[in-house]
Amino acid sequence: VKPDFWEEFARLLAELHKNTQPYFGLDHDNYIGSLVQSNFRHDAWTDFYREQRLEPQLRLAREAGHFNRNVTRAFDRFYHRIERIFPAEPPALLHGDLWSGNFMVNENGSAVIIDPAIYYGHREMDLGMSMLFGGFDRRFYSAYDQHFPLEPGWQERMDYCNLYPLLVHVNLFGGGYVQQVEQIIRRF
Question: Which of 28, 32, 74, 163 is positioned for an S-S bond with 117, CB 3.0–4.6 A?
Fold first, then answer.
């Protein structure tokens, strides 16, 4: 691994995130793990996140008996505040499933991302997912913020970004992921 591995990885991810288009979503659906990921277009991030990410996964989890009405009501309260939580940004091209198991190191010592679940979304989603299972080196986040400055308070928003991947894990694996979702959403 190169001495500046994390800084280079952050710079390259920031460059990916600078790719934009007029809407959130994608021109086709795809998958996150084995679950269908709907990418129906929306003009606003908060509408896309609620309708294309959280609601479909929450519905699956409720149907499987993972959550009760209290959790559903907490999500409803979250939806009423969601527009105040996320800063307005243009749609960014995302990896969509960026965690430590979805990058490798090539023969030159650079990061190569694999197994994407791409769409145009809020760039904090990739950063949140990267923190979900232990996170990347702190130099990565510092370098990212230098190359593509983040809005103040981004660290506090990471849990809200991770509601989606955590719901996906609830639906794929159940278990402790249910409690993680409940801990985050209980704030509402």
Answer: 32
